[in-house]
Amino acid sequence: GIQVPEKVNYVLRTLHEHGHEAFVVGGCVRDSLLNKTPADWDVTTSAMPSEVKECFAHTADTGIQHGTVSVIVEHEPVEVTTYRVDGTYSDGRHPDTVRFTRSLEEDLARRDFTINAMAYNEETGLQDPCGGRTDLRNGVIRCVGAPEQRFSEDALRILRALRFTSVLGFSVEQNTESAIYDLADRVRMVAVERINAEFSRLILGQRADLVLTRYRGVLSRATGLRIPAVNDLDRLPASVPVRLASIADADPKLLKYDNRTVRLVRDIRGVLLALEEFSGGSGENSAGACGAGRAMPLYKKENRSGEGTEPARVQLRRLLRMFGEDAVRGALEIRGDGTALLERILTDGDCFSLRQLAVTGCDLGLPPGPEVGKRLNRLLDAVIEGELPNERELLLRRNAAWTNEG
Ligand code: ATP
Ligand code: MG
């Protein structure tokens, strides 16, 4: 059987005691049968929203327009949704109307894939009129009903199909797959935030490489991103910015990623470009030059770090200064270089930012103004290049010498 958490079981029991049907449904049933821990537990019920509210002391109308009431059990919400049939979709995005029903089968039939169309409670056991269990066992993503119709109703389901394929390592049933090829363009009618959410989960999936390769055309049409032919995502950490950065040409702005993601992707690519030049052009495992324009000269060919600092270490410090730790780490991971040298720089406490410099602007004896910042940066340059240790006395001496030079 399925191990339903006690709070959720309490909700099921209470609804039963009031004469209603109630089941856990969808993703939590699917994940339980796969021996995975469900992210959340959704309850579906024959009770109308007003009837649900009568059964519990504490509820919140979180999605009442589509029949969802949050029941608060010991300060935690459990989402309870009335059996529902979606009306016609005239916009390919959301149903014009929703109609409540007293039939679990009707509710399950409106769901996207057979593996998501199962319900369970202790008394009646697994309810699986669409054959989800078999598809789950065989690793198959199959639409409930006619694929063309289901994808025309809500084109996001196309991306969801590929997301589940990637995350679960499943394959797409043939009719479902041909409808995906036929209707991929329609995904662009969907709100970009919904596309973003599914695409992010897709690229984090265990079979992301396979799905990106096999459905490259579909995904390009669906997202508007240009997806390149070869990727090597599977060995990368489960980070959306790192994986996006490794998909050359994928512009995260198009999918309205948050500023932090957009910036990190841009910075990782900046590091990649610089490292590519540093290591003398296109290494086999370099992720391809991306981004507009050519690289600015991020390094100096002739390395002047006299004191035996390895050139690679100096180069990483320069990049850390310019792009930050996350970007440098992401780029090294994408290149497959390993992060050992980076970690050594960090644990040794190498100075690569003004914050770490052993002097501040107040120490320089200069009048306030832009010269202070310039001077600090010049000192930082010398430290990063390995020409000067990051020691207060030495920095002050060098500073005084520069002041005297005029
Ligand atoms: P996860 O929570 O891991 O993303 P999930 O299957 O629970 O997976 P949700 O988006 O939480 O996905 O949706 C819950 C359930 O609602 C799904 O299992 C499915 O039955 C149904 N569902 C979700 N989105 C759609 C959709 N676009 N079309 C039809 N049914 C959907
Ligand atoms: Mg869910």
UniProtKB/TrEMBL annotation:
<feature type="domain" description="Poly A polymerase head">
    <location>
        <begin position="22"/>
        <end position="142"/>
    </location>
</feature>
<keyword id="KW-0479">Metal-binding</keyword>
<dbReference type="InterPro" id="IPR043519">
    <property type="entry name" value="NT_sf"/>
</dbReference>
<keyword id="KW-0819">tRNA processing</keyword>
<dbReference type="GO" id="GO:0000049">
    <property type="term" value="F:tRNA binding"/>
</dbReference>
<feature type="domain" description="CCA-adding enzyme C-terminal">
    <location>
        <begin position="353"/>
        <end position="396"/>
    </location>
</feature>
<dbReference type="Pfam" id="PF01743">
    <property type="entry name" value="PolyA_pol"/>
</dbReference>
<keyword id="KW-0694">RNA-binding</keyword>
<dbReference type="Pfam" id="PF12627">
    <property type="entry name" value="PolyA_pol_RNAbd"/>
</dbReference>
<dbReference type="InterPro" id="IPR002646">
    <property type="entry name" value="PolA_pol_head_dom"/>
</dbReference>
<keyword id="KW-0808">Transferase</keyword>
<dbReference type="InterPro" id="IPR032810">
    <property type="entry name" value="CCA-adding_enz_C"/>
</dbReference>
<dbReference type="GO" id="GO:0046872">
    <property type="term" value="F:metal ion binding"/>
</dbReference>
<keyword id="KW-0547">Nucleotide-binding</keyword>
<dbReference type="InterPro" id="IPR050264">
    <property type="entry name" value="Bact_CCA-adding_enz_type3_sf"/>
</dbReference>
<keyword id="KW-0548">Nucleotidyltransferase</keyword>
<dbReference type="GO" id="GO:0008033">
    <property type="term" value="P:tRNA processing"/>
</dbReference>
<dbReference type="GO" id="GO:0000166">
    <property type="term" value="F:nucleotide binding"/>
</dbReference>
<comment type="similarity">
    <text>Belongs to the tRNA nucleotidyltransferase/poly(A) polymerase family.</text>
</comment>
<dbReference type="Pfam" id="PF13735">
    <property type="entry name" value="tRNA_NucTran2_2"/>
</dbReference>
<dbReference type="GO" id="GO:0016779">
    <property type="term" value="F:nucleotidyltransferase activity"/>
</dbReference>
<dbReference type="InterPro" id="IPR032828">
    <property type="entry name" value="PolyA_RNA-bd"/>
</dbReference>
<keyword id="KW-0460">Magnesium</keyword>
<protein>
    <recommendedName>
        <fullName>CCA tRNA nucleotidyltransferase</fullName>
    </recommendedName>
</protein>
<feature type="domain" description="tRNA nucleotidyltransferase/poly(A) polymerase RNA and SrmB- binding">
    <location>
        <begin position="169"/>
        <end position="212"/>
    </location>
</feature>
